[in-house]
């Protein structure tokens, strides 16, 4: 009799549904190695394209530099003050477009002379001060009286004019040869003009644009 009860009990247990009813739950199959690699590659491509699009957009917005202020003449030569100082006869009566930083203004009886440390110019003809040094000093000769307030020491200027010769002088106690330029036109740059069209966005490796 005991054996019969045990058998019936076992059959009842076997007939009961599982803990979660008639449903069977199986663990999710892990992603295949190929699927994981494809997802990683797709994420990398998407991230790269997004960074490139952002960089291109920011550079396009920042790339509208002002147009040059002076049009070169047929007699305009591309040279630097220190080159002219070494071979003055080669450049006499040549036209130049030069720029730089004002050192001082000297007012004479019939003219004014502005001593300038020359620098190369960018595409807008603005002095490029990040050139690790100037291109030599020169003297811009202007007719009449020039107010030194309009050409303060340290101001950035671009001018067009004609080389009329050189003058021996001194910078401190050192001898120096200054090219002389008869000025036709000149422009003193404002701080806003110097930064117009220049990007303030830098890009690092593997990251997007960073606003400084």
Describe the model.
This protein has helices at residues 2-15, 33-62, 81-86, 88-91, 191-195; strands at 95-107, 111-119, 137-143, 156-171, 174-188, 201-203, 209-211. By secondary structure, it is α+β, with helices and mostly antiparallel strands. The chain has a single domain (37-205), classed as Nucleic acid-binding proteins (OB fold (Dihydrolipoamide Acetyltransferase, E2P)), CATH 2.40.50.140. A hairpin with a 3-residue loop joins strand 1 and strand 2. The relative contact order is 0.15.
Characteristic terms for this protein:
28% helix, two-stranded antiparallel sheet, single chain, 212 residues, OB fold (Dihydrolipoamide Acetyltransferase, E2P), alpha+beta, five-stranded mixed barrel, 5 helices
Q: How many H/I helical runs?
A: 5
Instruction: Give, in spatial order, the strands making up the sheet with the most strands.
Output: 1-2-3-5-4
Give the CATH superfamily. Answer: Nucleic acid-binding proteins
Pattern of helices and strands: HHHHEEEEEHEE
Q: Based on DSSP secondary structure assignment, what is the total number of beta strands?
A: 7
Oligomer type: single chain
- Count of structural domains: 1
Broad shape: globular
Summarize the structure.
By secondary structure, the chain is an alpha+beta fold. It has one domain: Nucleic acid-binding proteins (OB fold (Dihydrolipoamide Acetyltransferase, E2P)), CATH 2.40.50.140.
């Amino acid at each position: 009799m005991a054996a019969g009860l045990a058998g019936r009990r076992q059959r009842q247990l076997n007939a009961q549904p599982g803990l979660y009813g008639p449903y069977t739950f199986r663990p999710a199959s892990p992603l295949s190695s190929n699927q994981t690699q494809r997802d990683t590659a797709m994420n990398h491509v998407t991230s790269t394209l997004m960074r490139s699009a952002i960089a291109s957009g920011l550079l396009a917005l920042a790339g509208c530099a002002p147009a040059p202020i002076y049009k070169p003449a047929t007699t305009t030569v591309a040279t630097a003050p220190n080159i002219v100082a070494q071979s003055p006869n080669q450049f006499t009566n040549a036209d130049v477009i030069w720029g730089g930083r004002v050192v001082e203004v000297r007012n004479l009886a019939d003219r004014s002379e502005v001593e300038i440390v020359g620098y190369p110019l960018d595409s807008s003809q603005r002095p490029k001060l990040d050139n690790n040094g100037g291109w030599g000093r020169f003297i811009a000769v202007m007719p009449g009286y020039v107010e030194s307030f309009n050409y303060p020491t340290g101001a950035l200027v671009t001018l067009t004019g004609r080389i009329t010769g050189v003058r021996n002088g001194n910078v401190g106690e050192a001898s120096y040869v200054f090219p002389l330029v008869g000025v036709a036109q000149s422009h003193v740059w404002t701080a806003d003009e110097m930064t117009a069209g220049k990007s303030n966005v830098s890009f690092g490796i593997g990251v997007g644009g960073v606003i400084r």
